[in-house]
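Appendix B: complex inputs.
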Amino acid sequence: MAATAVATRGEPAVAAQDGNTNVVSGAKEITLNVNGEDRKVTVEPRTSLLEVLRDQLGLTGCKDLQDIYVDGADTVMIDGKATYAGTTFALQAEGKKIRTVESLRDGRSIDPVIAGFVKHDGLQCGYCTPGFVVATRAFLEQNPTASLEEIRKGLGGNVCRCGTYDGITKCALELAKGGA
Amino acid sequence: MNPFEYAHPQTENEAVALLGEHPGDSTILAAGMDLMPLLQQSVLETKRVVDITRVDSLRGIDTVDGGVTIGVLTTLEEIAYSPLLAEYPSLRDVVDGVRAIQVQQNGTLGGDLCHLPNCWYFRSGYGLLARDGGRSLPEVGDNRYHAVFGNSGPAKFVSASRFAPAFIAWGAQVRITGPEPDQEQWLPLDQFFVTPQTDRQGVTLLKPGQLLTHVWLPGAGQKLSATYEVLEMEGLDWPLTAAAATLDVDAGRVRRASIVLGHVAPTPWVSHPAADVLIGQTVTPETARLAGEAAVSEATPLSANAYKVRLAQTSVTRAILKATGQLEGGL
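Resulting structure:
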């Protein structure tokens, strides 16, 4: 772990305090692997992954609802696990594979979860939808044959103020039965 | 959020050294789901966050000394699915109640055990003891989610840990390292939790420079167990009350019993009266009901939370019935 790998921008970086190579202070340039690409970003210790994705990388699918925190609109996948980007420090995501909702579309090809949300009317205002889609994708990867009860238990970490849960649950149930 | 340093040790000794450099002003980071909002809202301030997630010795579940050792970075999902923990169904019950894949996949055992109280006064910046101008806010204000046991001192919040009742009912021990390198101590999990008398005291025994590293469970043997949580909502929420039961039943009669309540006191609440009712008895709906009554016989509810006494009683009764396969119906 090179102490000198600390960039100086904004606040002066002090890396090797007391000869300690494991401490980051101030701004630092790091590389995050996002949707299969290595992207250089500049973060402070207090910077959340959500801020980096939205403000530096323009990936605005994940949403910021700071007053509520655990609402799920900020859900991304880190090494395949559904994760709240708003409560993850950007520095913690270094060296990991981050996937956002933007990765679920490739040209004209879209993930079956997105198609399922459309088919079952699993959205209304759309604000929670990207996070809900990512959570549903991560859930189905862990529970490919989930029951209705398991779906309800797994997807309780996403809040939809429009109340579209029924459509989302139907989407997940259909994909679970279809083995998606 | 005030600026702070981020430290990322690779070993337990590095973590302890990094925590010890700013004693009292360093914070341990795992998944961050509890810590980050507290820092963002300036409820907590810190000079250094020590991210322990790269310390590999803190991960995993292993068979040790006739029991099972679980590293504090083990996730809820790993605990729920581990074959080594299949004989401890009360742990799986806890994960079942955490209805969010984000928390199941990232939330850690250590993060749960060290989770700070959800008391809304604490979360609004009034400190653990929730005092304002000499008044105890839970005493004069809205205390519907506060303690119904152990609340005669200044602390009125309830312990937030969801795993603690189940682990304590199993007789779990915990390992703490620091503040010196390689220094370690083991102690029963119920002694790990403290009821603070001051805001600085915290909710666990951990002192500056110390780290919780592992939890050890004794062998399950033929013991039965369950956790029963009362959840107000279907989505992600904290229990109003919970109870965990671990029962050693021999020839139809209870030889040993351990009943621990959660979310009713500033610490997990071991109920000896409930356990005593069961000893020597056959578990039936009637004995389970009597144990529930005994569990709350010494409750001291605040002005607006007497309803929690009844919920705690029912939690105990149903945890006992669930452990013995007698819980019927959806709830």
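Residues 148 and 301 of chain B are 4 Å apart (CA to CA).
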